[in-house]
Amino acid sequence: MKNKKTEANISMIVSKTFSGLNMNALKYLMPFWMAPLTGVTIRCTFAAIVFWIIGFFAPKETSTRKEKIYLFLLGAIAIYGFMFFYLSGLSKTTPVSSSIFSSLQPIWVFVIAVLFFKEKITSIKLIGILTGLGGALLCISTQKSDDLASDALTGNILCLVSSIAYAIYLIISHRILKSVGIFTMLKYTFGGAAFTGIIVTGITGFDARVLSDPISWKPLSILLFVLIFPTVISYLLMPIGLKYLKTTLVAIYGYIILIVATIVSLALGQDRFSWTQLAAILLICCGVYFVEIAENKDDKPSDPENKNVLSQETGNVN
What we know:
Layout: H1 2-29, H2 36-57, H3 65-90, H4 95-102, H5 105-117, H6 123-142, H7 152-177, H8 182-204, H9 209-212, H10 217-244, H11 247-253, H12 255-268, H13 275-298, H14 304-311
């Protein structure tokens, strides 16, 4: 078990680091080298192809036709919706702001659990929710549009919506995962997302200069990085961490996304230091911490349902 926990910790560090770098890489590509909607289609289609190939060699997993249909629809609506709002928002705001809203996903999962699954709410959890939302509102209301964020308000709102969409996906996929395997879920959800992406791209048009223009190695290399590491490897590593680590520890690893995106953004000139942005980050981190600590205290061995539901919210992969 000790080796498994070490493996899980390493998996979380690598996965979250890739997720943080993903924001900087996508910001470089969009919108000049690749339109946001085209980027969604490319990511989803590439991931679907890779997961189907890996699934062919992986141990056989059993699932019903009904479960496969549910997974396909979940990907077609929730995963595509998440990436649609996420990439559209990131193209208009900065990577740091985008990572701020991604960090809200644990709070959204808990809010959804309270509203639809009768999850218990306590004063400390309520404080955590309000603190996190305060940080989000601070970021939305104070960030101005400039040369680094063409439309900060719209971009931040889109990123906020994307975090809600991903939280919905996490809750539903967790319940389906009780009866299907990881590769079955990845194959059919990303298959559904690719299906929607291809339809949307067929209507809006394919716009990716990185693929249509004469070869430019820098943007092409960055695109390959996005497709291989944050898109495929991160989604494969997350289940290891979720299986062997405590919820609170997994939540703390989620802050790596903020740290990596912030450091790289400032180093590359993709963002400028802002005291209000720093305050928003601290508020959201505190909010998530309050919710996670309270949930960890409330967890009981006889009630694994709630523990597992809320442990999934920290698996944010962008």
